[in-house]
Write a structure and sequence with these properties.
single chain, 227 residues, alpha/beta, Alpha/beta knot, Trp Operon Repressor, Chain A, five-stranded parallel sheet, two-stranded antiparallel ribbon, 7 helices, elongated
Length: 227
């Protein structure tokens, strides 16, 4: 998988994309992440990438020309499955979408900033808009990092035990059951006996019931068809 991220603040992406599973996936050759500074494609001696909006609204807007130039350049080099704009008013990102995107080969992620981007970018260059929630951040860089982490960890080989990702919350539209480790008794706080029983069938039944119970209690909007 190759992901090209377009941003005016590339420094924001340096740390989150260079640790843990994402770092290991890159080292294994399972994923490539290329960060492009939109300012490198800016206009004039000062590499201008933003301007005042028509109509007099406050704030600045990322101009269409630098974004068009960089996307056009990348699309001449390879075919992209999606050109994604990280936007608070996009489709809400969830595990189903993460699963789908993890099967793609080439993605472009455009990070908005300031008051956003010239709307013509969204009309003519973007194929999908994604939001990580109904709130506003300073830019799309952190949402882009979240999306990268979420989908790269699903690539076969990114996680040592591939079955681990399959048991995560939301994979079956339910929350994951509680997990415990040693010691079995800490200050009188004990691990459920069933997990110490060594009986795979009983453990599986307990985990399933716990997933349903936790989903009903904490996220009743999920998995309604299951109970």
């Amino acid at each position: 998988m190759r992901i090209d991220i377009l941003t005016v603040v590339p420094e924001l992406l340096e740390s989150p994309l260079n640790y843990s599973i994402v770092k290991r996936a890159k080292e294994k050759g399972l994923a490539e992440i290329h960060i492009h500074n939109i300012r490198d494609y800016g206009k004039g001696n000062y590499k201008q990438v933003d301007d005042y909006p028509f109509g007099g609204e406050a704030g600045m807007v990322i101009m269409i020309e630098p974004v068009y130039n960089i996307i056009s350049k990348l699309q001449k080099e390879r075919v992209y499955d999606e050109v994604i704009y990280m936007s608070p008013d996009g489709e809400i990102f969830d595990q189903k979408m993460a699963n789908m995107l993890s099967c793609r080969h080439n993605l472009i992620l455009l990070c908005g900033h300031y008051k956003g981007v010239d709307h013509r970018i969204r009309e003519h260059l973007i194929t999908k808009e994604i939001s990580i929630g109904d709130y506003v951040l300073s830019g799309g860089e952190l949402p882009a990092a979240i999306l990268c982490d979420s989908i790269i960890r699903l690539i076969p080989g990114a996680i040592s035990d591939e079955t681990s990702a399959l048991s995560d919350s939301f994979q079956d539209n339910l929350l994951a059951p509680p997990v415990y480790t040693r010691p079995a008794d800490f200050r009188g706080w004990k691990v459920p006996d069933v997990l110490l029983s060594g009986n795979p069938k009983l453990i599986s039944q307990w985990q399933e019931s716990q997933s349903l119970e936790r989903t009903k209690k904490l996220r009743p909007n999920l998995g309604k068809e299951d109970y």
